[in-house]
Design goal:
The chain is α/β, with parallel strands linked by helices. The protein folds into two domains: about 5-265 and about 465-485, 3-Layer(aba) Sandwich (Aldehyde Dehydrogenase, Chain A, domain 1); about 270-455, Aldehyde Dehydrogenase, Chain A, domain 2. It contains 16 helices and 24 strands. It has a seven-stranded mixed sheet with strand order 14-15-16-13-12-18-19, sandwiched between helices. The protein has a six-stranded mixed sheet with strand order 9-8-7-10-11-22, with helices on both faces. It has a three-stranded antiparallel sheet with strand order 5-6-24. α15 links the parallel β18 (about 425) and β19 (about 445-450). α4 (about 95-105) packs antiparallel against α7 (about 195-205). The radius of gyration is 23 Å and the shape is globular. The structure holds NADP nicotinamide-adenine-dinucleotide phosphate and magnesium ion. NADP nicotinamide-adenine-dinucleotide phosphate binds near residues 190, 248, 397 and 422.
Amino acid sequence: MTTTATDWRARAAALPLPAHAFLDGEPFVGTGERLAATSPLRTGALAELPLCDEREVDAAVAAARRAFDGGAWSQAGPRERKRVMHAFVDLLAAHREELALLITLETGKAIRDALREIDSAGRELRFFAEAVDKVYGDVVPTPPEAFGYSAREPVGVVAAVTPWNFPVMMPVYKLGPALAAGNSVVLKPAEESSLAGVRLVELGAEAGLPDGVLNAVTGSGEVTGRALGLHPDVDVVTFTGSTAVGKLFLRYAGESNMKSVWLECGGKSPQIVLADAPDLERAAAFVAEGIFHGAGEVCNAGSRLIVEEGIHDDFVELVVRESASWAPGDPLDEATVVGPLVDRTQFERVVDYIGVGRAEGAVVATGGGPAAVELGVEPTVLTGVDPAMRVAREEIFGPVLATIGTAADDVAAVANDSIFGLAAGVWTSDVRRAHRLARELDAGSVYVNTYDRGENSLPFGGYKQSGIGVDRSLHAFEKYTRLKTVWFDLS
Ligand code: NAP
Ligand code: MG
């Protein structure tokens, strides 16, 4: 049974909103500066959260360190850690609608997608709950007078700094493997969407994570995020966000304690369509979904369409037709597929970029301006885009597709002509060509005859300036464990 928009609105109005961070097993209200949680659906602040300063970040890191050294989690047997993490997933499911509403209120994401985000975050966390006892080292061949092995050990205190576009999923990508491996975590959610992050951390405590193992510091990037990046007792920073801020974390590490820094950053992912694509209508539907889903505020949005010249005009027409089904609407209506953008700054940025494209000589094939919904942008297709244009090179993070027509032999070169390398899509019926392109494309994920599909067991990460390291899959443990070598002399 579907819940009506009126029901969702009534629930949203009655929803208790956190007004605290979460430190050492307790809500932390603080007495210092405040940070306003805002919504594209309302005027004024939704709630006020503490803007955690250096001292408060220090208290969170100290709590995380005490918890780690105390061993209640870091030394707990795998069966116990598994039990608590499964309980955490159960609580996520029990609070599905509450968390989804927080996401929709703070980001404008369609409630349909927000509910899906909670479901996929649950599956992701379940994967890591199941993986707790599957991370191990090796006994290596040695001469009989010696015994040598390697073991995976938790690193210690992990700071997770996350973006606003997936307020539950991005934190889960980090804390799933970090906690499963036995670390303590301090989460710093993006200021645009901190409420869901705080609730997530509280549910972890309710599930039985010992005090200090999972903390949330709310605040701004410049103060709270920077303090984590520079903190001498943080062992690992795991970050998702823009490339520019990712680079700052590399600097912070160099200026402080050389902590490891893992980055999931921006993208300008190509969707390549060749004339021999198995089904052009299907390809057009995926191309449209690949860029317009989530209003394009998605890291692996397929924001460049690279299409073989011979089919260019016909294919663009199909994409334009498909784009009509991605018009923004009321995000609290379950029938709505896309809501407004996250805030006015982002809205203006995206509208400005469309202007930049026009000024550079691109043609607006459809869309091109504000949608009927406040802070919504029409699904926009630009054609006549040259690979040198800013709209072909910079991440717009909105519903704007830049179309480049090219010869079949040049698609890989055009696709790879980018500082980014997060994802890429290829549509072709020629299996040899598909295999060749899958390897030639400089991207962390390549989708063949589809776009943006995956499993918990497949890694997700960027090449080039899209990142360092991967989330998801057992490979994620490489970020949150250290490999120890032990050598026994038995002679
Ligand atoms: P962002 O502006 O880079 O912010 C990301 C996080 O860094 C936020 O928590 C932010 O805090 C913090 N931050 C900002 N300035 C900082 C500073 N000077 N020092 C320390 N921390 C700082 O990114 P966003 O706008 O939230 O998210 C959009 C970006 O994320 C896009 O580029 C998108 O491609 C990328 N993304 C990548 C992936 C992936 O898996 N590769 C997934 C999702 C999103 P405040 O917000 O509180 O300032
Ligand atoms: Mg931000």
